[in-house]
Structures are given as structure tokens and as C-alpha cells.
Amino acid sequence: MSRFITISAIAASYFVFAILLNSVGTVILQSIHSFDISKPQASTLEGFKDLSIAFVSFFVASVIPRIGYKVALLVGLAIVAIACLFTPLVGGFLVIKLLFACIGASFALVKVSVYSIIGQLSDSIKSHSSLLNTIEGIFMVGSLAGYWLFSIYIDPEAPKSISWLNVYYPLAGMIILTLLLVAFSSIEKAEQPSSPNYSKPNILVGFIDMIKLSYQRLVLIFLVSAFLYVLIEQGIGTWLPTFNSEVLGLPSNVSVQMTSIFAAALAIGRLLAGQVLRFINWYSFLNSCLVLMALLIIIILPLTSETSTQNVTSFLDAPLVAYLLPLIGLLMAPIYPVLNSVMLSSLEKYQHASMTGLIVVFSALGGTTGSVITGYSFQAFGGQQAFYLSLIPMVLILVSLYFFNLATKNQHNHAVTE
């Protein structure tokens, strides 16, 4: 029962943060309308979210095991609960920037804790990959729920209204309930190596541990792969609501609802991957996913210029292409959790917090880079051309995966010979 409660606690934490983090695309669209700002200005929200994730992860990830994963989860949840209650009371684009900074900083604490707890609950690569894909799948279910929750508070007849900010009240309630679940869970203390100074929460020592870890060839190749993947996912996911609105001409609330297909595809893809990978080699599987992603972009994007959306008033009225493009999420879904699982399973458990810190840092930098590049490309060249640019990092990931696979084999062979 204690294992079930612990898994439920980390799953619930990931669920609420999925809603908050993946709402950035919706909030960008609504901010453009409500606060009369440009697309490049709106894209800075991704930076407030991701750079705060990167900063906090970089400096405190290795300290979290010393203060305790449970404490870190409680602090992260408490911060965002307060921020969500504060946002609709004040309103304005500045407070939204501060909200996403709080979300990012808190998620850094939560992700490092969750990934490390998964390591504690797993005793093999297969069990680790299965639980990680399940938790990441629940994350995408939360993202899916978030799009529909936000769409309920969006009034397409009053695009400049800020009444949509009231969505943060029920979100605050969900976060408080999650905080209580974490408080009553049995989360073990971190496994620590025998060192007289390790138990002390020294930020400098933890920072040095992360830097030393990044010197490894396997880790460096992995970080490049993770950076490129998140660049693609955030570039597409963040700007898909705006793409639906401006390129396909859908109403704002319908644009957000259609983006939920992307989240649903990611959720289904990650949940299925946990089963498929029991029978298929991860390297071959991820290569197939990347090739099919590229083909989908090449085939579907030309169709977006031939759609008619004059009579679209609901989710069911949308043209076929609006349903097809988000399905790219089904193919990209397994890439991130599989890469993370292979990497973490190659390390000692006491190194998982430091490694997760590096994962979060480079993922955050990749997310910001992808969103900003897509935002500027969207403004300068249009939505179609902006999404075509995602083909470049797809090719680069294929190259990095080749070297990552070689590095994992070399490390395994070295471990066997010792």
C-alpha cells in the first residue's frame, strides 16, 4: 500500500504540473489577444518557465537528496499553489511571467525528486523504463486535461477579456489536494555514498558533482539528444494553438481544444511504448519514430493551406488536417522517456539526482530555444515555414542517437570486463 501511495503521490504531482507547464501555448495565445503583445514578446513566457527550471536545477539538484525528496515536493507544490491564487487577483502580463517563473522553479524541485524516487522504486532497466513511461504518460494525460480546462474559461466572443485567468482558482485547489497526498506518502530518504561531507546540504559540492558527471562522453551525447528533442516538442506544442488559430483560422477556444489531440497522442504514445519496448530494441524503435515524424511533417503541412474553416464553431467542426497534424505526438512520445531511462539506468542510484538536474537544465534550454525560434519564425515567415524548421533537429537527433547507442554499448562492455 505504501508503494501505491508513493506512486500515486508522484503521479499526481506530475499531473498538476503537466497542466501548468503545457498551458504555456494556450496562455501565449490568450496573452496576444488580452494584452495586445507581439508573438516574440509572448514567446518570452517559455523563457520565464524554462530558464527558471534550468537555474534551479543547475544549482540545487544535487542538494535535493540531502534535504529529502518529500520536502522538495512539498515546497514545489506550495509555491505554485500560492502563485495560482495570486495570478487572477492581480492580472496583467507581468504577473503571468512571474507565475511561469514560479512554475519553472517548482518543477525543477519536483522533477528531480520524481525521477529519483522512480529509481528507488525500480530494480531493473525494464521496470525503470516501464514506471518512467507510465509516469510520463500520466504527465501527458494532465496536459490533455489542461487544454480542455483552459478552453472552458476562454470566451471566443470576448478575446480581450482576462476572465480566463479564473482557471487558476480550480488549479490551486488541485495542487493543494496533491500536496496533502504527498504529505501522507512514505517516500524514502535518498541512498548516499559513504562520505563524511555528503550528508551536508552543500550547494557547491552538489554543483561540482553535476559538472563532473557532464564530463562523461555518454552523458554529453545524451544531453545533446535531450536538448534537440525538447526543442522540437516545445516548438510544436507551444505554438500549435496559435497555428490552429492563425493558419487554420479556428476560433481561439477550438484552437486550444484541438491542441489537446497533441497531448493525447503523447500520452498514448508513452503508455504504449512501455509495452512495445519489451519486445523491440530501443535504438531501432526511436529511429523509426524520427523518420515517421519527418514524413508526417512533409505530408501534412502542405494540406494546411487548402482548408476551409468558415463554419467551424466547435471541436467536431474542425477540418481533417487539424486532427492529423497533432498526431506527430504519437511518434515523438517515446523518445524522451526512453533516452532518460537508458541514461539513468547506466548510473548508480545516488547519481540520479545529479543526472536528473542535468536533464532538466538541458531540457529547459531546449524548450526555450525551440519556442523562441518558432515564435520568431512564425512572425517572420508564417506558421507553415516555422513548423518545417523542425525537420532540422529531427535529422540531428538521428545522428546523436547513433553515437549515444555506441556509447551505451561501450559502457556496458566496459562494465562487464571489470
Beta-strand proportion: under 5%
Helix content: over 70%
Let me know the average pLDDT.
81
CATH topology: Growth Hormone, Chain: A
Count of alpha and pi helical runs: 18
Number of domains: 1
CATH C-level class is: Mainly Alpha
The CATH homology group name: MFS general substrate transporter like domains
User: In total, how many beta strands?
Assistant: 0
In whole angstroms, how far apart are the ends?
39 Å
Which architecture would the CATH scheme give at its second level?
A: Up-down Bundle
Backbone structural class: mainly alpha
Shape designation: globular
Poorly predicted runs are: none
The biggest beta sheet reads: none
Give the H and E element order.
HHHHHHHHHHHHHHHHHH
The value of Rg in angstroms is: 21 Å
What does this structure look like?
The protein has one domain (2-188, 201-417): MFS general substrate transporter like domains (Growth Hormone, Chain: A, Up-down Bundle). It has 418 residues and is mostly helical. It is 77% helix and 0% strand.
Compact description:
This protein has a single domain (2-188, 201-417), classed as MFS general substrate transporter like domains (Growth Hormone, Chain: A, Up-down Bundle), CATH 1.20.1250.20. With 418 residues, the protein is mainly α. The protein has 18 helices and no strands.
